[in-house]
Inverse folding.
């Protein structure tokens, strides 16, 4: 049967068809929808983990129990899960284990552009790369068989344009797989050095066997014979661009990308006069072909960063793009429209205060990273999940008198649970006097409102145990924990001043539900009295979509305004009011 | 049959994804292949968003190249102008008469919205169809009808998709009680396309 599906939905469909018993992971664009779709199958246990490492470890437990398990994350999530990932390569599997890494070429929603195909090579596990939703479905399904056949976790590498591509998918029924049960085998599953040294050889043999399989497999690594004498080796989303740009070329499309089927590539190369490699991001395949002594053109013909598209591939293969823009926009510089915090968002007030108080803000990953953008522009560093805590401790300690008493770490609730807690332990154990602000909106908002341990719901929306952020901090040993209402600027300002002055670790929890995910309306739309307004611009500087310039004065869009009252509080002239309900 | 490329643009939260899905479902109903590329995540927080829809006998890839779109369907004027360079020399833009000011950065220096945007769009688009989608949706009593109205306008221009295909797609995408209203909005919208 054919169905219209998002790439991520197709991964879930394929995993379900393979009889997967368990799915885990941590939300992250562009991977999030996989588990959400898998959760539509009631018989599969699907749960969000606090972070990717834990998600993979629970999946490994399910795999050890003999069940098929799926673990999903975005590319940087695999950095977090790298420890169990590399070790699971040595234990191998009992039930099939598929780890999905959704890479983000061009960094649409990410802090880096890493090419996770190198993870497969470094960890010595099998890797598959689908080109579109239909392949995402059957490859996810078959990846579980590969995993069991070769006793290896399988890395399924998605990219943004496969994960978030919608297309026609051939769907099937669910395979009958029976759980194998746990089998004690300490030489395989207890990675003592003496065991690991033995397993190391098994890992190598498995790779050789998988390479031999890939060299023969027309299913995974198909050849499209063309009329011309030009050959292209390609993988993943790049395949479509190649097919469309050069319908006459011969194409070797690699779906089982690691271990690379080098013999198959060599024989293919022998049949053509000119050989290209077209792949997104790093020259992963190209390096191997050059090392094998093949003459090949590739990465030098395209930008080293960003995603591929028809224009780039046309330039690569044809020397010039077939499509060019004929509409000239160069004479009309357009105002950019970057993403912003929602009107009514509780984070806005906090960042307005950070800017006003001239604080040094060590930020983190979430909606609130948008507080770094103008006009709020109140963040000084943002690195990776959880890093705000450690960075704040380090800057506070070494920033000198200039930064002393001015530095805060700023982190969301989900990110705090993900990997902020160990940083807080470090502050406590090493006698820091730093201040951490937790922006607690009780949800993982940026990725679309997934529950976290503080939400009190599971992935299907059922009630679940709810961790209290303040209790967690107190339980860790923080003596100064304060909960504030982020919409009350004076109260929050006072709390920040006091905690910055305190000679020990402090945590300020700004607690208010996400207005988008919990559908909160804070009040009636703000009203501007232009006769009182002195056009100071304080209200504009809170960076709210609902308030904009009109004839030199602020104007509120009543449809958009959430009535949060932040602009009212920053207006010293009292020219903005929220009408009482 | 060659591939027909339809670019949708607007501001996050305007229902652009839904529109793309309806075109894709209509294409499937017509027995065609379809690929669509969409934006999720950070780009949705009030930022500009686009959805690429490509339909044909066989569609190998999902992104429309610059200069490759047969049609541009825009939910907002500034986002129509921003994406005009995706149109082919013979392409048509269907633009909702609607303005959403981008975030004001500075009360005193802000240029506000693009000056003379209607004239700029008319001068630069190879072909342009204005659609009073927001007014019409209001008249029909549901602001969410904007997307089906715009699709109605587009529907006359796309060869290969019949009224039956569009109806099937709308019925699949919307709940039963909303279907008739959506179909009516779609029909009202199609009046705009015919005038082109």
């Amino acid at each position: 049967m054919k169905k219209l599906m998002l790439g991520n939905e197709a991964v879930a469909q394929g995993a379900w068809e393979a009889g997967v018993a368990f799915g885990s992971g941590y939300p992250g664009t562009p991977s999030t929808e996989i588990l959400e779709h898998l959760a539509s199958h009631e018989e599969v246990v699907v749960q969000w983990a606090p972070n990717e490492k834990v998600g993979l470890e629970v999946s490994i437990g399910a795999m050890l129990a003999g069940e098929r398990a799926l673990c999903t994350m975005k590319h940087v999530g695999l950095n977090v899960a790298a420890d169990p990932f590399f070790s699971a390569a040595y234990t191998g599997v009992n039930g099939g284990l598929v780890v999905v890494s959704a890479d983000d070429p061009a960094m649409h929603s990410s802090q880096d552009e890493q090419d996770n195909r190198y993870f497969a090579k470094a960890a010595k596990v099998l890797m598959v790369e689908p080109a579109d939703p239909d392949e995402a479905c059957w490859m996810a399904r078959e990846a579980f068989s590969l995993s069991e056949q070769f006793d290896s976790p399988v890395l399924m590498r998605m990219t943004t344009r496969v994960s978030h591509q919608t297309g026609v998918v051939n769907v099937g029924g669910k395979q009958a797989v029976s759980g194998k049960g746990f089998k004690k085998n300490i030489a395989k599953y207890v990675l003592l050095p003496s065991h690991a040294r033995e397993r190391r050889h098994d890992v190598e043999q498995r790779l050789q066997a998988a390479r031999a399989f890939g060299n023969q497999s027309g299913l995974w690594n198909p050849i499209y014979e063309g009329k011309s004498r030009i050959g292209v080796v390609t993988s993943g989303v790049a395949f479509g661009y190649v097919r469309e740009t050069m319908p006459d070329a011969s194409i070797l499309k690699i779906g089982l990308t690691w271990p690379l089927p080098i013999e198959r590539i060599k024989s293919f190369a022998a049949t053509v006069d000119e050989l290209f490699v077209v792949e997104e991001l790093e020259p992963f395949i190209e390096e191997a072909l050059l090392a094998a002594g093949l003459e090949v053109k590739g990465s030098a013909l395209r930008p080293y960063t960003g995603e591929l598209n028809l224009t780039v591939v046309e330039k690569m293969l044809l020397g010039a793009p077939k499509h060019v823009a004929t509409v000239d926009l160069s004479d009309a510089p357009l105002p950019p429209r970057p993403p912003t915090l929602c009107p009514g968002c509780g984070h806005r007030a906090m960042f307005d205060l950070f800017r006003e108080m001239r604080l040094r803000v060590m930020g983190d990953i979430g909606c609130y990273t948008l507080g770094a953008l103008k006009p709020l522009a109140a963040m000084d560093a943002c690195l990776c999940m959880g890093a705000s805590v450690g960075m704040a401790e380090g800057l506070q300690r070494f920033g000198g008198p200039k930064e002393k008493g001015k530095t805060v770490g700023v982190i969301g609730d989900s990110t705090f649970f993900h990997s902020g807690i160990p940083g807080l332990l470090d502050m406590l154990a090493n006698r820091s006097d730093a201040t951490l602000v937790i922006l607690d909106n009780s949800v993982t908002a940026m990725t679309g409102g997934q529950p976290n341990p503080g939400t009190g719901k599971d992935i299907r929306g059922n009630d679940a145990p709810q961790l209290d952020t303040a209790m967690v901090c107190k339980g860790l040993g923080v003596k100064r924990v304060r909960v504030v209402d982020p919409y009350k600027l004076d109260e929050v300002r006072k709390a920040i001043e006091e905690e910055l002055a305190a000679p020990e670790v402090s945590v300020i929890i700004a607690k208010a539900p996400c207005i988008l995910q919990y559908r909160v309306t804070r009040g009636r739309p703000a009203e501007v009295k232009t006769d009182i307004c002195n056009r100071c611009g304080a209200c504009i500087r809170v960076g709210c979509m609902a308030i904009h310039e009109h004839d030199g004065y602020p104007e509120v869009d009543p449809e958009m305004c959430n009535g949060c009252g932040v602009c009212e509080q920053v207006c010293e002239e009292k020219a903005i009011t929220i009408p009482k309900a | 049959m060659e591939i027909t490329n339809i670019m949708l643009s607007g501001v996050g939260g305007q229902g652009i994804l839904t529109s793309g899905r309806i075109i894709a479902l209509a294409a499937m109903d017509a027995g065609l292949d379809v690929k669509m590329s969409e934006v999720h995540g950070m780009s949705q927080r009030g930022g500009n968003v686009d959805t690429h829809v490509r339909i044909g006998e066989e569609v190998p890839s999902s992104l429309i190249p610059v200069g490759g779109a047969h049609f541009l369907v825009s939910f907002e004027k500034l986002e129509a102008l921003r994406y005009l360079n995706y149109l082919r020399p013979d392409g048509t833009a269907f633009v909702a008469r609607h303005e959403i000011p981008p975030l004001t950065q500075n009360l005193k220096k802000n240029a506000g919205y693009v000056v003379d945007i209607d004239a700029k769009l008319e001068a630069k688009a190879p072909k342009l169809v204005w659609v009073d989608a927001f007014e019409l949706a209001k008249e029909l009593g549901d602001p969410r009808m904007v997307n089906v109205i715009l699709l109605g306008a587009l529907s006359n221009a796309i060869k290969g998709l019949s009224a039956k295909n569009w109806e099937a797609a709308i019925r699949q995408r919307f709940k039963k009680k909303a279907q008739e209203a959506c179909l009516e909005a779609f029909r009202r919208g199609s009046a705009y396309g015919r005038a082109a």
Q: What stands out?
A: Strands of chain B lie at 4-11, 33-37, 48-56, 69-74, 87-96, 127-131. Residues 4-105+117-195 of chain B form a domain with the Pyruvate-ferredoxin Oxidoreductase; domain 3 fold (CATH 3.40.920.10).
